[in-house]
Amino acid sequence: QVTLVESGGGTVQPGGSLRLSCTASGTILSTHVMGWYRQAPGKRRELVAVILTGEPTYKESVKGRFTISRDNAKNAVFLQMNNLKPEDTAVYYCNTRPPTYSVYGDFGSWGQGTQVTVSS
Fold this sequence. Notes:
Layout: E1 3-7, E2 10-12, E3 18-25, E4 33-39, E5 46-51, E6 57-58, E7 66-71, E8 76-81, E9 90-97, E10 109-110, E11 114-118
Parallel strand pairs: 2-11
Antiparallel strand pairs: 1-3, 3-8, 4-5, 4-9, 5-6, 7-8, 9-10, 9-11
């Protein structure tokens, strides 16, 4: 059983930056996908960025602004968010799943979420 804990959320002005962190208790296999998803009020949870090996996958609207990275030795995944926009406001969730599962489905283990609010 894996427990994921997110941190780093908060309130920033448009154009600001935040860095989200997710650490896992229990071992995350380096062969498992790690990623970030978000859910805005009244909307479904959506993929933001996922990484296994090689090139990460990003939601189109965050490309060039967000960067995902992982540290397998520390069982951690990070999301650097720059040039934040009001439409990025959401609860952000950390996730890990076997690579055999689609990254677009509700699979794997989830953290409790961290709130990101972008507002002037």
